[in-house]
Amino acid sequence: MAYSAPESDRAAVRASVIVPVHNGAATLPAALSALAQQEGVGAYEVIVVDDGSVDRSAAIAERAPAPVTVLRQEQAGPAAARNRGADAARGAGGRWPAATIAGPEPEVSPCPASGPSR
Predict the structure, then answer these.
(1) Does the pLDDT of residue 13 top 60, yes or no?
(2) Helices (DSSP H) in the chain: which residue ranges?
(3) Residue bearing the bigger pLDDT, 83 or 104
(4) CA dihedral 62, 3, 35, 109 (to 10 degrees)
(5) Where are the domains of the chain?
(6) What is the DSSP string of 20-53?
């Protein structure tokens, strides 16, 4: 199941947070909770790409405290998961922070100065 914002909301999305995850059930709830509590950042979307997890990562994302788009794919690695999330992203200008939830320590990269052209 994937959340899809109404068409009118999609135009307002300023940023997309792409969360590639592989067997991240232990760390994903805290990451999604933190994202849901963001204030003053404008409209943003969260896209979780489950990269072939065998744990409950996708189910956890589907029950997130805020709307989340959940995409599933066969395990192809974090770069492929990020790219799949980028393809689905609605954020203006193609810029987004990247969060990798793949193990015991989440890795968060800052938003690039200029995003890739899509």
Answers:
(1) yes
(2) 7-10, 28-36, 57-62, 78-88
(3) 83
(4) 100
(5) 22-38+54-102
(6) EESS-TTTHHHHHHHHHT--SS-SEEEEEEEES-
